[in-house]
Amino acid sequence: MTPEKWRDEIVALLPRLRRFSFALTSSAADADDLLQATIEKALSKYSQFQAGTDLDKWLFRMCKNTWIDEWRSRQVRGPSVDPMDFRSELLVDGEQELVDRLSLSELNTALNKLQEDQKVLIALVAIEGHTYKEASEILEIPVGTVMSRLARARNALQDLLQNPDSRHSKGADNET
């Protein structure tokens, strides 16, 4: 693939990558920073890109890994800004009726209480429309793990939306 064609394909993926970045970060500014860092990495690694590799999956994996690195460094530094509200299209299937009754603030609170791996899966499958197989390739985990984690994520989100004081949290064990 020529460098020009490769860049054109990256440009075509930018809206989807930005949505994914926003779902991960909960902030438009942080999403833009994450997207920029991801694209910078991708452009610097053009020589490592192998023909036949799915550019979509390669970029989403790079974005996720960049976000994890940033998230870990923020755990040491602490958050720099408060998260913005999520948009209603960031919901898993079957949640629309409940959202109609919720404020974006309540939704934002519930999504931010999910474990990070659950938030990533909801972003990949429910927001970006990736199949379980594609999500497993992006995250480099088995399809069965994607399915079980996504089921737990959906259950946790539903519980948090119905019971805002629920114990689900980013560091909690949700399998009790």
From TrEMBL:
**Any signal peptide, and if so, which residues?**
none
* RNA polymerase sigma factor 70 region 4 type domain: residues covered: 106-157
Matching CDD domains: Sigma70_r4
Asked whether the UniProt record includes Flavoprotein among its keywords, one would answer no
GO terms (molecular function) for this protein are: DNA binding; sigma factor activity
Q: Which GO terms describe its biological process?
A: DNA-templated transcription initiation
In the record, the note on similarity to other proteins reads:
Belongs to the sigma-70 factor family. ECF subfamily.
Protein name listed in UniProt: Sigma-70 family RNA polymerase sigma factor
